[in-house]
């Protein structure tokens, strides 16, 4: 648990350090560019992320499993997966640019997608995150990422102050990616040597592709879940409506960072705990699910009640319709928090196809509801579709698990006695940690 806590702490530092500067810079940029330009830029970002989800090749989780199984072959594993992802990324970049240009001949769309598509290329090097996570040294990638992010946030604020055009922000976003990954790849190369084609193992690549096709589809479906509303709003509504929707969704999705951090850090521990003590493994999942439900419910209630104030404070009158969208969309936090627990359970159990089937069915629900509601309700219709789709994913994952463990975990989530015990244990842990901190601080002051 100590290693999980350390990994979670570094991941949380990464998210929190980006949370408040990120939302501030986003708000300033949205005000500066206006709903139309901001909406078009975010449409191309959404499109490039959909294509980038294919370029990941489902390796974001498989790399952890592979590195744990092949600890002595780290350079070979990292080089092979990085080469696979770089190849896929180059193809996806070309497809993104061609498709967006064909669907939207406006030169502004072409300019934005050309820059946005580089995300797929640089995220290929996130394979090193898996290595540092397995070796419990995530700070090696978190520190450079946070440092570069904060530095370029400052640059963007200066650009806004100087009334810079959109092209300036596109270049700054691209240069931020370049600086981040040059640092990370350089540090890894000093430790293990540079990535090399000589270390690429084609047999491993074929095996991994055979194992990952379900995860490739699942990743694509997840990103489609999160971004198909942007695409459909741009088609069925206006860029201005999309701009309002984007600023509302950004506030809502910022809170997804918390369960994402915990789920990423928990995965290696869950693999080990399942092998060592299956009962403790299920108890850990049950507690995690209950805590996630409570936190997400409180979060959705608070944000829904304060949506009007938040939008006015951050984005101003030009984005006034975003408040109504936020009041609806924030309730998607509940199924998202729960779903991230269940996804890790399915992955540890090797039930990849259940995850895929659930996402496929729920994506269809999402698209159908969007098509029905967007023409009449705009962004609010898209928000309703998102909430309905996320709840359907979780329900289907539980229903399709024939072992009954997912259903048992879900039933335990609303068990009053277990909730009370969880809250009592958490309170005890927090008090103990605080007392240890106070004792440590006082000890240092006495013994300089």
Automatic annotation (TrEMBL):
Keyword Manganese: no
Keyword entries, A-Z: Membrane, Transmembrane, Transmembrane helix
Transmembrane segments: 40-59, 80-102, 108-128, 140-161, 167-186, 207-226, 291-316, 328-347, 354-375, 381-400
Tagged with keyword Heme: no
Its membrane topology: Multi-pass membrane protein
Subcellular locations according to the entry: Membrane
GO cellular-component term (any): membrane
Superkingdom as given in the UniProt entry: Bacteria
InterPro entries xrefs: Polysacc_synth, PolySynth_Transporter
Pfam short name (any one): Polysacc_synt
UniProt-recorded name of the protein: Polysaccharide biosynthesis C-terminal domain-containing protein
Origin species: Chitinophaga eiseniae
